Amino acid sequence: MYSILDIDLDYFNLIPDAAKRFEQLLNWAARPVSMIVERHNHAFARWRRKWQTNGIAPSHILHVDEHHDMMDQRQQTNIANFMFHAMYMWPQCQVHWLVQHPIDSPAMWLEDETWSLLRGRFSYGPNRPFRWPKPDVVSICTSPDFVVPKLTSELMEVLAEFMEDHHKGRNVHQGATPDRYATFQSGR
Known about the structure:
34% of the residues lie in helices and 15% in strands. The protein is α/β, with parallel strands linked by helices.
């Protein structure tokens, strides 16, 4: 079993006490954050490289996001369809979309035949499914176009405590520290 906790910071836009909820999710994960990306499809690219290098396909993805990211079936992976590509690439993978207020359903965007193949492995709701496995990988997407800077700052403060460099014997993935992200964002 190989599990991914995939968090998009836009999830917290409508969540009361967002920093506390973010901290609770990261505490549940009980492991340091593996990667931080701005665009969600870049996390998928890293998951795919890990799979191609090590032959480890995820069995579970907990997708914490304001969007389901299954909005089309285009061949080119993008921020709106990367979860479709993950489910297509890994046909045994279960995906749970952790969402407080779903704005729509993948059924609206995917062809009927495609959705009928995927829907048995896709669930959604405001709570993590019972006995969902703890993650082997934690990926964070900052989505700067979808999250106000003040909320991003609050969440990045929480995130700093869960980075790999805060844990002995671990190295930070290049470019993954909140400080480097802030520097990149400000253009310094």
